[in-house]
Protein: Flavodoxin
Amino acid sequence: MRHAGKLILALLALTTALVWQMEDLGSGRQWLATLVLLAYALLLWRAKVRRQRQQPAVSGEADYLIAYATETGTARQLAQQMRKRLGKQGCTAALTELNRLADQSLPAKALLLVASTTGQGDAPRTGDRWPTNDDLKRYVDLPFAVLALGDRSYPQFCAFGLSVAGQLQQAGAKPLFAPVQVSQADPAMVNYWYQCLQKAADIPV
Ligand SMILES: Cc1cc2nc3c(=O)[nH]c(=O)nc-3n(C[C@H](O)[C@H](O)[C@H](O)COP(=O)(O)O)c2cc1C
Structure:
């Protein structure tokens, strides 16, 4: 996204330069085109600021830290919904991709993981470098819960989510409840996972 923003700005600057090369346009039209391009850049900038406000920076003060591992976006979407849902219950939650978990401060209450599986039971793009460079010792005694996404038609159903749960437990982290395996992002099972969390973490309904 950061690269896309830079590319758009570079294209706008190039277009402005081209407009000023076209002398037969006349300076009135050249100014008009420049103003339109500037207004467009301003709109893009405002949209970016709004997006950043909707996704506050990850903070060590958060009650929950939600880490997602996704290939095609479902786990990220569900993680974002989870954060909103927790927010409505008065809880704070920070969001990160699993590959960046090592850079985040630990949450006050629990680590929540939304992890999809790809390939033949493999890690998806935003989780394929975890736990490299993460000191798993820091998760000792940390409560956690895993929402494992997959598809029942694959022989290695939810393999990556289960592997994440296993590695955390082996490192000494404390599962709030067993990983919930969800096929094709079934909303009923996602809801069931959330109910388990509410019960285990004593979140008001
Ligand atoms: C190429 C491919 C390979 C997949 N491999 C598995 C698998 O081995 N095990 C599994 O349970 N699900 C597998 N799935 C299903 C995905 O995990 C499931 O659709 C999930 O909801 C995708 O989540 P995402 O959008 O966060 O990546 C696979 C899906 C695709 C497209």
